[in-house]
Amino acid sequence: MLTTPIRSQSSLNFSRLSDFVVRMSANC
After folding, report:
1. Cα angle vertex 19, ends 4, 27, to 5°?
2. 3-state DSSP call for residue 23?
3. What 3-state DSSP class applies to 24?
4. Half-sphere exposure of 19 (CA within 13 A, CB side)
5. Helix (H, G, I), strand (E, B) or coil at 25
6. What does 9-20 look like in DSSP terms, one character per residue?
7. Those residues with Cβ within 8 angstroms of residue 1's Cβ, 6 or more apart along the chain or in another chain
8. Which tens digits make up the pLDDT trace of 5-24?
């Protein structure tokens, strides 16, 4: 969303990071 992933690895890491952020937001 913030930055478009260039490589598939970056996309996977971004997906994990996004999921982590969503979980943190849910906790708050």
Report:
1. 135
2. helix
3. helix
4. 6
5. helix
6. HHHHHHHHHHHH
7. 18
8. 556 677 788 889 999 999 99
CA distance 23 to 17: 10
Residue 6's alpha-carbon distances to 10, 11, 28, in angstroms, are 7, 7, 31
Q: Give the position of tokens 């994990």.
A: 16
Write down the pTM of the prediction. 0.51
Residue found under tokens 């970056």: 10
Contact 25, 8 (CB under 8 A): no
Tokens found for residue 19: 């999921």
